[in-house]
Write a structure and sequence with these properties.
There is one protein chain. The protein has 679 residues and is of the alpha+beta class. The protein is built from 15 helices and 23 strands. Among the domains are: 96 residues, 2-Layer Sandwich (Beta-Lactamase), CATH 3.30.450.20; 81 residues, Signal transduction histidine kinase, dimerisation/phosphotransfer (DHp) domain (Helix Hairpins); 157 residues, Heat Shock Protein 90, CATH 3.30.565. It is 49% helix and 24% strand. Strand 9 and strand 10 form a beta hairpin. Keywords: ATP-binding, Kinase, Membrane, Nucleotide-binding, Phosphoprotein, Transferase, Transmembrane, Transmembrane helix, Two-component regulatory system. GO terms for molecular function: ATP binding; phosphorelay sensor kinase activity.
Length: 679
Amino acid sequence: MKQYIKWDISSHKFLLGVGSGVIILLLCALNLGIHSAQDLKEIIAQQFNHQQLILARQASQEIENSFNALIEELLILKYSQREPSPDLLQMIFQRAHRLGARGLLVLNQDKKVIYKIGEPTLTKLTPLDPNNLAVHLSKSWVYISEPLRKKIIVLFIDPYLLVQRHVARIRSGKTGYAWVIDENGYFIYHPIKSFIGQNAFKVRQEKAPDFYFKKINKIQRQEMLQGKEGIGEYISLWHRDVKGYVKKFVAYTPIHIPYTSHIWSVAVCVPEKEVNAVIHYLYLKQFFIQGSLILALIGLGIFALSLERGFRETLRQEVERKTEVLKKSEEKYRLLIESADDLILTLDMFGNIISFNQATASFFKKKPALLHGQPFNVIMQWPPNTIIDCLNQLYTTKQSIVKEHIVKINGKPHWLNTKLMPLYLGEEIKEILCIARDITKEKLVQEQLSNAEKMASLGTLAAGVAHEINNPLGIIIGFGELLLENTPRETQAYQDIKLILKHALHCKSIVQNLLNFARPTEDLSKAIDINEAIKEVINVVRHTLEINNIQMKIEFASSLPLVQGDKKQLQQVFLNLIINAMDAMPDGGELSITTRLDEQQAIEVLFQDTGCGIKEEDLGKIFDPFFTTKPEGRGTGLGLSISYSIISKHNGRIRCESEENKGATFIIDLPPIGGQYAR
C-alpha cells in the first residue's frame, strides 16, 4: 500500500512538473514571440523600405528615359536630309507634348522666332549653344536646344508634367506617395500642390513653424542633394489629410539629367503605422500558427502523457508481477540452497568467499559475518597455494575440480568431498561455485568395511595358524612341565626351563587370542546393562589404576537402554581400552569414562585419557592386526583389532579421536534393544 501511495505522490509531482514545464514553455514562447515580433518588425521595415527604393529607382529610370525620348525627337530633325516642315515639327511636338513639352520654337541666327508651336517663353533664356545639343534647367522650365542648319530648335518642357506622369501613380502601402526635388531643394513634384516650386526646407518650416524637421532636412541636405541613394525614417506633422506626429519610412535615389551634370532626386515615403499594420497582420498570423503548434504540442503532450501514464501503470503492474514471480523463484531457490545439507559457497577470482548457505556456517560453527570475505583455503585448511592452483586450473581447463580432504572442527576431523565449478557470465567465468559434502560417515563405513575384510582374512589365517602352532606348543609345554618337576629348584636348569615355559605360555595366549578372534560368537542374544558391565571391569582394575597414579572420573547416564550381546566380550573390549589408557599414562593422569545417548538414540561409551596421544599418521592403522606403538614385548597388536571385531559383531562401531601429546578418546556406539531400558 505504501508503494502505491508513493507511486501516486510521484505521479502528482510528475504531472505538476509537466504542468510547470508547459507554463514555462508558454512564457518562453511568448517572450520569444515578442522578441521575434520586434525582430520581424525591423526586418519587414527594412524590406519595405527596400521595396520603396525599388519604386524610386523605377521612377528615376522612367524620368531619365523620358528625357532621352525628348532628346531623340530633336535628333530626328538633325539627321533628316531636308528642312523641317511645319507638319514634321507639329508631329514631333505632339509626341513630345505627351512627355511634358509645352512649346517648340524655331530661331534664326539672331535668336528671333521664325516658327512657334504651343506656349513657349523666352524669359531669362540661357544662352544657347549654336553648335551642340544642350539641356538647360531653370526653376520653372527645362528646355532642350538643337542647332539645325543655321537655325536652333528649342523644346520647352514643364518639369512638373515630365515627372508627374511617372511618380503620381506610385503608391507605397495604402497612402504612401513619391515626391521629387531638384538640385537646389525645390519641389518639382509633391502631392500637396502648394509645395510645388517651393523650397522644401522653407515650405515645411512655414507650415509647421514650431517643429524642427531635423531628420528629413538632414536626409535631403546630406543625401538627396548630394546625389546619393539610401533609405531612412523621419518624423512629420502630416501625411496627406492626416495631421499630427507621423513617423515615416523613406527611400530615395538620384535622377541624372542627360547631357548635364545636374541631379534631381526622387523619394518614396509611407507612414510607419501602415508598415506596422502589415507587421501586425503577419505577427498575428505567425502567433496564430505558433499558438496552434504550441496547442497541438500541448495536446500531443497531454495525449502522450496519458499514454505514458497508462503505459507506466501497465509496466508497473507487469514489473510487480514479474518481481513477485522472481521473488518467489529466488525464495524457492534460496530455500533449496539453505535447506541443503551440503556446503554451498561462491568464490571470487581471488579465492575469497562471496556467499554461502546456512549449512556452511553451521558446519564450521562460525557466525556468517566471520565467513564472508574469508580466504577459502583458510576455511578449508588447505595449504596456501592450493586454491590458487585450483583457480588457475579452472580458468585454464574450464572443467570442474573434485578434492577429498580433512577439516578439523574444534579438534574433530571431518572428511569433505569438495567440488569446484566455474560460473559463467556470457563466455567469461565470473565466479566459482563450491559444493562440499561431509563424507565422514561414509569414510567410517568404508574404514569399517576395510577393517571387516581384514578381520575376515585374518580370522581365516589365524584359525589355520593357531591349529598348526597349538600342537607343537602343547608338546613344548607338556615336556617343559615334566622337566620342571624333575629338576631341582636351586639349579640354573630349573630357571631356564621356567623361562621356556613362560614364553611358551605367552605364545599359547597369543594363539588362544587368535582362536577367539577367528571363532564365531556363540551367544549375542543376552540383554546387557552397559553401566553395570563397565562398573564390574572398573572394580577389577581400580587398584591397578591407583597404583599407577591414575585418577578415575566416571559419568554414567541414567536410564540407558539395554544392549543385546555378549557381556564378557564387551567387558573384554572395555578392559582392553582401560589397559591401553594406563600404558599411555606411565607417569599418571586422568581417565574419564562416560556413557550417554547420542542424537540417534544410540548408546555412546567414551574412554578419554590424558596420555601421550596418537600420531595423526597412525590413526588410520590402530585397528589393523599386529599394529602397535608399544615397546617390544609389551603388546601383541591384537587388542584393538579384537575389540574392533567384537564391537562390529554387536552391530556397533568404534573410533578414535586423538592428537599427539593431547590424549586420546575412544568412542563406542552400540544400538539399544528397542523398548528395554536399564533401571
